Amino acid sequence: MDLPCPCGTGRAYATCCHPLHRGDVADDAAALMRSRYSAYVLGLDGYLLDSWHPDTRPAVVALEAGVRWLGLEVKRHEAEGPDRAVVAFVARYRVGGGRAVRHRETSRFRRVDGRWFYLDGEVDIG
């Protein structure tokens, strides 16, 4: 039996985010965002860099030790043309034995040569 995908679709990882982690192209920005969440859960820093737009990509992604990801909720996915999209989401996590934290973000995505990339995001800390 295959494990459920960390992104919360209810689908098996093997048929949900894993193909994207192997290099398949995301159908839309929401699928890419979900695959990036799963990459954080699974510690796939290489995938996070590869799916980051070259104009805003950092040199490294520092995954924090002791983070336990608790869930993802996609609040909104809007296409802003054929090659631009916005995805608003809430990702819950806990560091060590601390309290759960809600990371609220509205992310911008761009499609280049048929492939979606994370461009940047605005975090709602309020």
From TrEMBL:
InterPro entries listed in its UniProt record: NTF2-like_dom_sf, SEC_C_motif, YchJ-like, YchJ-like_M
The YchJ-like middle NTF2-like domain, residue ranges: 29-121
UniProt signal peptide: none
Pfam family, one: YchJ_M-like
Source taxon at top rank: Bacteria
UniProt xrefs under PANTHER family: ADENYLATE CYCLASE-ASSOCIATED CAP C-TERMINAL DOMAIN-CONTAINING PROTEIN, UPF0225 PROTEIN SCO1677
HAMAP family in alphabetical order: UPF0225 (MF_00612)
Similarity annotation: Belongs to the UPF0225 family.
Protein name from the UniProt record: UPF0225 protein H4F99_02030
